[in-house]
Amino acid sequence: MSTVCRDRESKVERQREKDQRNDIYLVTSCNEMELLSLPALNRMAICGGTHGNEMTGVYLVQEMARRQKELGDKAWPVPIVLVLSNPRAMKECRRYSETDLNRCFTSSILSTPISDSSPYEVRRAHELNALLGPKESKEAIDVLCDLHNTTSNMGVTIISYSPNEWISLHIYKYLKMKMTSVPVRLFMVNIPINEAYSLESVGKNGFSLEVGPQPHGVLRADIYNYMKEAIELAIEWVSLFNSGAVIEGGEVETHMFHKSIDYPRDPESNQMTAAIHPQLQDQDFCCLKPGDPMFLSFSGETVCYEEEDSLYPFFINECAYYEKGIAFHLARKTTLKIPSVKVQRD
């Protein structure tokens, strides 16, 4: 039996699923759900070009900057700081210049003094932390969204660090309800914020928006439009929250990181000996069961998944992960309950 999962749901089917949900998004009472009052979200940052060859975020931030220059305060219902994170890598159309910027935002790195000999991206991380943070401080930006592309078939994926980060979880819930033309999923890294290594961790509330598939150094109109729609909806949710509406909680499906899988390698040369199996290619977030094909060796042999638990692969065959020794990540699918929220009034 083929393990290829039919993940491309039609727009009609997705619309029907949305219409059948009997929860009303904006409510006047919390029913049986917990209701939390959270501080207003007065400032939002949207960052692109953290990886200089992921083009959608670069062009979207540039277009938003053009609109902001033209319309001023009327451009968005909430003040937005627009940042092109890695200008040197963007100019070179490379992921990074000296080291991966999106691994430079741990508290340890940000608290270590820099010098002229520090890698460019480490120095840039300190600059961004000063602009948008400092990380874990009262002065940090209220919401930080970092824009990324992946070569993997991941649709629109929100990446968050904590299952208790209610703002990002609510934004994910809103996107999943509103976006009908592309799958929307949540990947939870689930590590302490001081160990969180990527740019979005600098904000009080932060998430990464990963959209694909798109080759690095390339701009696709459909991927651009997915990201644009997601950002507009995120801004819309922040505006709704700030308006004082009670926003209903409920259950959200998430994928919790389990572990990473490397390619099969020659024990002496450490060279790859196999590629992603055709039946696994492009099947991000589809269930991988024991006995399912994972790799196809260069001599034609199939390497199968042998663990006892069925798990969910993603970032399958991501181009940027070859240097990291990662063929794909594995996650456990689980359901989180999130409370209803409203803005805290003085």
Automatic annotation (TrEMBL):
<dbReference type="InterPro" id="IPR007036">
    <property type="entry name" value="Aste_AspA_hybrid_dom"/>
</dbReference>
<dbReference type="GO" id="GO:0016324">
    <property type="term" value="C:apical plasma membrane"/>
</dbReference>
<keyword id="KW-0963">Cytoplasm</keyword>
<keyword id="KW-0479">Metal-binding</keyword>
<feature type="binding site">
    <location>
        <position position="148"/>
    </location>
    <ligand>
        <name>Zn(2+)</name>
    </ligand>
</feature>
<feature type="binding site">
    <location>
        <position position="54"/>
    </location>
    <ligand>
        <name>Zn(2+)</name>
    </ligand>
</feature>
<keyword id="KW-0862">Zinc</keyword>
<keyword id="KW-0472">Membrane</keyword>
<dbReference type="InterPro" id="IPR055438">
    <property type="entry name" value="AstE_AspA_cat"/>
</dbReference>
<dbReference type="GO" id="GO:0004046">
    <property type="term" value="F:aminoacylase activity"/>
</dbReference>
<keyword id="KW-1003">Cell membrane</keyword>
<dbReference type="InterPro" id="IPR050178">
    <property type="entry name" value="AspA/AstE_fam"/>
</dbReference>
<feature type="domain" description="AstE/AspA barrel-sandwich hybrid">
    <location>
        <begin position="251"/>
        <end position="333"/>
    </location>
</feature>
<feature type="binding site">
    <location>
        <position position="51"/>
    </location>
    <ligand>
        <name>Zn(2+)</name>
    </ligand>
</feature>
<dbReference type="GO" id="GO:0016788">
    <property type="term" value="F:hydrolase activity, acting on ester bonds"/>
</dbReference>
<feature type="active site" description="Proton donor/acceptor">
    <location>
        <position position="210"/>
    </location>
</feature>
<keyword id="KW-0378">Hydrolase</keyword>
<dbReference type="GO" id="GO:0005829">
    <property type="term" value="C:cytosol"/>
</dbReference>
<dbReference type="GO" id="GO:0046872">
    <property type="term" value="F:metal ion binding"/>
</dbReference>
<dbReference type="Pfam" id="PF04952">
    <property type="entry name" value="AstE_AspA_hybrid"/>
</dbReference>
<dbReference type="InterPro" id="IPR016708">
    <property type="entry name" value="Aspartoacylase"/>
</dbReference>
<protein>
    <recommendedName>
        <fullName>N-acyl-aromatic-L-amino acid amidohydrolase</fullName>
        <ecNumber>3.5.1.114</ecNumber>
    </recommendedName>
</protein>
<comment type="similarity">
    <text>Belongs to the AspA/AstE family. Aspartoacylase subfamily.</text>
</comment>
<feature type="domain" description="Succinylglutamate desuccinylase/Aspartoacylase catalytic">
    <location>
        <begin position="42"/>
        <end position="232"/>
    </location>
</feature>
<dbReference type="Pfam" id="PF24827">
    <property type="entry name" value="AstE_AspA_cat"/>
</dbReference>
